[in-house]
Design goal:
The complex is a heterodimer. Chain A is mainly β. In chain A, a hairpin with a 6-residue loop joins strand 4 and strand 5 (about 45-50). Chain A is built from no helices and eleven strands. By secondary structure, chain B is mainly β. Chain B is built from no helices and eleven strands. Chain B has strands at about 5, 10, 20-25, 35-40, 45-50, 60, 70-75, 80-85, 90-100, 110, 115. In chain B, strands 2, 4, 5, 6, 9, 10 and 11 form a seven-stranded mixed β-sheet that branches. In chain B, strands 1-3-8-7 form a four-stranded antiparallel β-sheet, with no helix packed on it. In chain B, a hairpin with a 4-residue loop joins strand 7 and strand 8. The relative contact order of chain B is 0.32. The chains are: A mainly beta, B mainly beta. The interface of A and B includes residues 38, 45 and 102 of A.
Chain lengths: ~110, ~120
């Protein structure tokens, strides 16, 4: 089973700052990686798929990069609504199996 | 647009079973696969399995094999997730997620159902 490790666990930043979140896979997942944002009491929202593609309606300040085992989610300039928990996710081949990282909380400094 | 409405909160005793429903609308029911994902209080997301509403085939995460059953009722556009032999560690919010294909990412989420396991 592929394990996803996110770092840091918590990121304390101010609005307007740049956020860089990391996700490392225990073995290559090619580019089959997604990022989600979750706010308290809400379901997660898909931000990035296939490592670098923004989902519909996601602002351009969110970007993803990486392939193989190392991935990054960057928020270029934090808006107040961006303070949330972020999860990475990967999928394996047939039968389809999905795993999530443990999450990174982006909190207001 | 895709809408998923889940059943209400449940309280169960250890050893019991729970069956959570997810009613879909806004699309052709048999054209989308359905995942189930759970989240324990204050914890991360955990994938449980997937069902193809078209034929009813399923694939479960190894952790839940033997304890989870996913079914569907095409007449009511509803998917069900039943978890048996409940223990306190199963206390979580359970989400259904509709996807256009088995390898599609998780775009459409239900509102979640809180299942509490307590004696």
């Amino acid at each position: 089973e592929i394990v996803l490790t996110q770092s840091p666990a918590t990121l304390s930043l101010s609005p307007g700052e740049r956020a860089t979140l990391s996700c490392r896979a225990s073995q290559s997942v090619s580019s089959y990686l997604a990022w989600y944002q979750q706010k308290p009491g809400q379901a997660p929202r898909l931000l990035i798929y296939d490592a670098s593609n923004r989902a519909t309606g996601i602002p351009a300040r969110f970007s993803g990069s990486g392939s193989g085992t190392d991935f990054t989610l960057t928020i270029s300039s934090l808006e107040p609504e961006d303070f949330a928990v972020y999860y990475c996710q990967q999928r394996s081949n047939w039968p389809p199996q999905w795993t999530f990282g443990q999450g990174t909380k982006v909190e207001i400094k | 647009q895709v809408q998923l409405v889940q059943s209400g909160a449940e309280v169960k005793k250890p050893g019991a079973s729970v069956k959570v429903s997810c009613k879909a609308s806004g699309y052709t029911f048999t054209s989308y696969y359905m995942h189930w994902v759970r989240q324990a209080p204050g914890q991360g997301l955990e994938w449980m399995g997937i069902i193809n509403p078209s034929g009813g085939s399923t694939s479960y995460a190894q952790k839940f094999q033997g304890r989870v059953t996913m079914t569907r009722d095409t007449s009511t556009s509803t998917v069900y997730m039943e978890l048996s032999s409940l223990r306190s560690e199963d206390t979580a919010v359970y989400y259904c997620v509709a996807v256009a294909g088995p390898y599609e990412y998780f775009q459409h989420w239900g509102q979640g159902t809180l299942v509490t396991v307590s004696s």
